[in-house]
Amino acid sequence: MKKYKLKLIIYNVNIIFFILLIFTIVQNNKAFQRYKELNIKEYVGEIYQVRANIDQQILTQVEGLSTRILNDEEIKGSIYNPDYLWSNVKIYRMKERMINLIDTYEHISGLDIYYNQQNMIFLSGSYKKLSDHTSAAKPYVDWIYDIENYDKAEYWIATRYYEPLDREVATFVATLPFIPSINRGKIAIHLNTEYIVAYANELIVKEESHLSIVNKDGVKIEGNINSNVIEQLLSKNKEDVNYFIYKDDIDRIIFFDESLMNDWIYVYDIPLKNVYNSQKFILENIGVAIVFILLSIGVSIAINLFIYGPINQIFSIIKRLPTDNEYQTMRSEAGYVKDKLSYTLERFEKLEKEMEQNKQIIFNNYIRNIMEGNMLVEDINEKGFDPIYMEYSQYFVMVIKLKMETENNRINHHLNRIRDQLILEDKYYKVFTLIENKTIKCIVNFNKEKMKKSTIIKKITIHLQNHESLSIGQEATSDKDDIAASYYQALEGLEYAYIMPDLVFLDYEMEGFQNFKLTGSREFIIGNIEKSILLKDKIAVQKELTHIIQAIRYGRYHHNYCLNTCREVCSTIRRAFKILGCELDELLGYDIRNCVKKSSDIYELEEILKAIIEEGLRTVENKVKTPDNQLKQDIIHIIDNNLCNNVSLQLIADLLEIRYDTLSKNFKSIIGCSFSQYIREEKLNKSIELLQDNKYTIKEISNMLGYNSTQYFIQLFKEKYDMTPKKYQQLKLLNTQDDED
Asked: What is the pLDDT of residue 609?
């Protein structure tokens, strides 16, 4: 293994070297960027300070001089009357006053006052009159050209002042406050820009740097700045930056800032190397980086020598690991060790997956046994099975089931998503879930002192949508019978999801399912549905159907009774249409009695049945009237009119003027049932109407319908409606009183 020792050291040293090299380069680059940004920020601050000093110390004073040449008394005395005529303006000779101003402020080179009306001008305090200043070979002041037709109150211009300075100056021109506006009196204050630049350079004591001033039109005010720099300056100024690099004989960096007083731009020109020097920075830092890398390599070698012993032992253990035949003939020892490790890792991963699967099976069995009352919670806690540890004293069971019908893989995916959201850790409750038979069964273990059951239910329902039904059992202690009772209550409550689809969740205790009625009186409503169909009264059928659906939803009946009622309604509709000669099974392509299974709830069932009834009645009405169909209508009409007069086949044959034996032979094929059966059904339907009127006794109704024996009538009525006529009349009367209340 000695060769491995050397390879290990070389390999690790190379890795560390390249990692440290990349790290050093990245860190030095970041350090240089910080160094560069800090230095540039320092110089930006300096040009900002220069601009602030010149604006506040010089330009502010200059702009204030125009109002201080005359005091308030002199200004008032210069105007003799409100007509502001030139002849009434007192002209002050201000030579001495102007000389004092120039001597007081070093940055002022000269001062002019100009009155446009009579072309008079004070030049450094000496009064002169210009006959035609525009044609003069050498005019006194160039600024007169610029302001003659300019109406701003004050502004700055770059001009040439010939007498007595004979040089370029910066001039501030302002309207005189004591001259009428019609005369356009102006004062021009000429600044010594050399003094301003010298003043600024005293603020910036940097080698090989200098300050210049230009205006926003690109006119140089003062300083040593060439046109190329001015051109770049104006373009960069529009980009809202405050420095740029300029390549001349050497790289230079230009900092600039705009004056807040006028249109000047202060330009600070300095060699780039004085601001930041990349070569110098690298040379200063590379030595430290090399020392750091060498020390790290030395430490790496020492660590590798130290850990070689344990690694050698590990390799010895790897050699003894079991393997299969395909790894026995390897061309190198290193490859042999590598393949052995790979094989071992594969075995471990496989074992880990099998353990995880077994763990889930054990978990599911424990949860199922707790729910069904076969195990105590304390027994599982004592076993120390980590996935199940129920630390709180209160429990309840809930069951979640999908309402929609879909493929098994989509159902499992949907249920797993809900389960993952439910089992998220909470401070005061835990949820233990089991997925089977397209449902999620949950034991909720909670701290009753810190959180109520209702609060937990609100938090859980957040994760549910309209596609799921949630049923909840009563609160329970750790007693296995209590938990089992809660579980079976949740299962039973889930049966009511079809009947009560509008509820967000079904709480067994809250709804009181244990008190729901096991039976009721549905026969008379179902009979009305059948009668309305036979009468082809669509509105009446829909009304009766809505009535029975509402009775199922709000009547607090047991779910078995409700489902049986729904099936009986479907059978009645099927039977009634068959009497009308319409086979719904053939029309729809399926048995209408399967609608209960096909619908997700009673409201969907109601819509399905209404659509079927409408289609069935439309089919009956649209049938071509064959002689048999017309004959059927005539037979039904005769029977309806003579039902209480002992109607017979002979009477019908006589009225229709057909042979008795022909009618008797074809009656069932025309009507759909035998004559006696049809008469019996019609008489019983008629008895319902007479009982609802509550005007006749049972005996009177029996006689009216042509029954010789009242007992026989009662027997027939009970066979069809599962109750006696008297009981039906009492129930109808009771329901009528409840509706009135």
From this structure: 92
Tokens of 69: 């040449």
The last residue of one of the domains, among 623, 654, 679, is: 623
**In this predicted model, what pLDDT tens digit does every residue of 176-204 receive, in sequence order?**
665 555 445 777 788 878 888 888 877 77
391, 509: one domain: yes
Q: What is the pLDDT of residue 611?
A: 92
Torsion of CA 44, 50, 55, 58, to 10 degrees: -170
Q: How confident is the model at residue 85 (pLDDT cuts 50, 70, 90)?
A: very low
Same domain, yes or no: 381 and 488: yes
Backbone angles phi, psi at 83, to 5 degrees: -80, -10
Are 268 and 291 within one domain? Answer: no
Question: Could you give the CA distance from residue 530 to residue 548 in angstroms, rounded to a whole number?
Answer: 13
**Residue 127 scores a pLDDT above 50:** no
Same structural domain for residues 506 and 581? no
Count the domains in the chain. Answer: 5
Q: What is the largest CA-CA distance in the chain?
A: 152
Contact between 110 and 159 under an 8 Å Cβ cutoff? The reply is no
Coil, strand or helix: which one is 132? coil
pLDDT tens-digit series, residues 635-651: 888 888 888 777 888 88
Domain harbouring 131, CATH code: 3.30.450.20
Strands 429-436 and 394-402: unpaired
Q: Residue 547, SS3?
A: helix
Distance CA(320)–CA(578), nearest Å, equals 84
Instruction: Decide: 623 and 629 in contact? Cβ < 8 Å.
Output: yes
Q: Are residues 370 and 471 in the same domain?
A: yes
The label of the residue with tokens 């120039």 reads 102
Q: What is the CA radius of gyration of the chain?
A: 54
Sign of CA dihedral 607, 609, 612, 617: negative
Integer Cα distance of 568 and 384 in angstroms = 54
- Residue 293, in any domain of the structure: yes
Q: How many CA atoms lie within 13 A of 46 on its CB side?
A: 24
Residue 732 belongs to some domain of the structure:
no
CA distance 165 to 192: 10
Q: Are 559 and 498 in contact (CB under 8 A)?
A: yes
On whether residue 652 sits in a domain, the answer given is no
Q: Which helix (H) or strand (E) holds 506?
A: strand 506-507
| 143 is a domain residue | yes
Q: What is the average pLDDT across 282-291?
A: 72
Read off the tokens for 326.
């395909």
For residue 160, the cross-strand partners are 168
Expressed as residue numbers, the domain containing 164 is: 66-195
Regarding whether 297 and 253 lie in a shared domain, the answer is no
Q: Looking at this protein, which amino acid is placed at residue 309?
A: G
Distance of alpha carbon 579 from alpha carbon 383, whole angstroms? 68
CA 554 – CA 335 distance, rounded (Å):
77
Q: Is the peptide bond before 82 cis (omega within 30 degrees of 0)?
A: no
Token output for 218 = 């690109």
Q: Which segments within 350-464 are labelled E, that is strand?
A: 394-402, 429-436, 439-446
Residues 494 and 549 in one domain: no
Tens-digit pLDDT profile for residues 21-51 = 787 778 778 887 887 788 888 888 888 888 8
Match 């040293």 to its residue by tokens.
13
**In Å, how far are 58, 196, 203 from 53, measured between CA atoms?**
8, 10, 9
Distances in Å between the Cα of 332 and the Cα atoms of 129, 338, 342, 530, 554 are: 112, 10, 15, 91, 82
Do the beta carbons of residue 121 and residue 130 sit within 8 Å?
A: yes
In this structure, the dihedral spanned by the alpha carbons of residues 389, 392, 396 and 401, taken in order and rounded to 10 degrees, is -40
CA dihedral for 384, 386, 392, 398, sign (positive or negative): negative
User: Which of 278, 301, 329 is the endpoint of a domain?
Assistant: 278
Residue with tokens 């690694």: 311
